[in-house]
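Minutes, project check-in

Agenda point 3 was the complex the collaborators sent over. CS summarized: two entities, 538 residues total, and the question is how they sit relative to each other. Sequences were read into the notes so everyone works from the same version.
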Amino acid sequence: MELIDRFRAGDRRALARAITWVENGRPEAAELLKALYPLGGKAHVIGVTGPPGAGKSTLVDRMALGLRQRGQRVAIVAVDPSSPFSGGAILGDRIRMQRSLSDPGIYMRSLSSRGHVGGISQATGDVVAVLDAFGFDTVLVETVGAGQSEVEIVGLAHTIVVVAVPGLGDDIQAIKAGILEIGDIFAVNKADREGAERTVAEIEMMLDLGHMGEPGLNRWPAEGPLPGGPAGYQGLERLDPTGHHKDVDELPPGVTAPARPGGGAGAGGEGPGGAPTAPQGPGGRHGSVAPGGISWRPPVVKTVAKDGQGVEQLLDRCLEHLQFLRESGRWEARQREDAQARVQDLVARLVARRVLDRAAAAGDLPRLTEAVARREVDPYTAAEAILRRHFAEPPGRPEEPIS
Amino acid sequence: MEEKIRVLVAKLGLDAHDRGAKVIARAYRDAGFEVIYTGLFQRPEAVAEAAVQEDVDVVAVSSLAGAHLTLIPELIQQLRDRGVDDVLILAGGVIPEEDVPALLAHGVARVFGPGSDLDEIIAFTRENVRRRAWS
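CS then shared the predicted structure for the full assembly.
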């Protein structure tokens, strides 16, 4: 396939077309994703979410530029909502990304949510996989303006930045469930506005309460040993100056974990705003402690995206979080979780498609759905009948409708 | 998943009026298209680069400031430099009748002047999009 060859050669048009295929679910897309899969698994995927008007696009613009200055290749995926009436969409994130988009080292793609309501589109995961395979070091995923339930970005991003702004509500808003539970890092944007300190304090207090749930999929699984041995989180000094992460086995010798599994501190607190801090106590779940005493307590960073203020600190926190994921073994754990979820999802979809295609071809599907619509048969009985008839049966047997 | 027509609505150069661009963007949205709007004051190479990255089927340029005979051919050249030859290029806005043949000769598929019917623009776009194959 010529597209794959051109993709492998680094052709950006081939990349763009590959994303189109994936987004449209074309038959060739599955072949493409199969061929590209061995190339992926390297990119740091950072999700940026928050309410409409919080400044996500402008912040992503600044973050992309900052990562470029650290020598990274950066891709941006920005999701905007589709019209519930026409299915069309106006995708306007490029307007606020003018600074970074003149940089040829940055690739940006606008996606419509295409009717999906979780904050990203159904194809966003595969689009990110394509960008990962193309060789970008970081993929920034900006969600649809999100409120309290658009949390699907958790299943996609390694690091989640929740963007908040001053003046959106009292502290009850800050302890509600939803997107505030999923943040690995909080950015209080428009921090030059009145009320920024209060917003920071409210989020800090919410984090200190410690019962808001674990930070998304970055939680440590309850069972299983720490892959590769404990590595003890030491903080910023082991970050490569270019901003590229180092693998765990490149860490300086002599780094060991504090021997207080389940309750020990990492490298000690850095104080407010610093990423690695001592755990908040046994009740703490936000930033809970992995085996080996490695902890992450989500930091809160003040930013003014339009001026670029605070963006370097935000990027430092993102890279520290990546380092945390790697050193705590959560990166590998996450890869396994993703693989499991992906395979299960695909099996479910393939089985469903095969069964439904067979049922439709045999005439059972229209007949039974019609019967359900007339309330002669209930949907559970109909589904079981279709499964009995069309799931286990080997192909090639004569097709006869269920009587 | 249905294949959506993707349209880049662009404003080139020192042209501060984007009401027409917003009207057409909205009309395309309401027709079920996906519209990428890049904002005002764009350079031709930036629009061409956006067209590549977004893999659009259509580039619709709205021009109200009189520089269409310079900027639109430059945009088309920038697209060709990037190997893009399967994109439908439309122009609209305040474009004098006598300038239309030159634009068509450069590769613009059609010029829609003031008072154009939105339904006609959408029908024309739908009929003339070149369904992309990658051979």
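Noted in discussion: Chain B touches chain A through 32 residues (CB under 8 Å).
Follow-up: revisit at the next meeting once the mutant set is ready.
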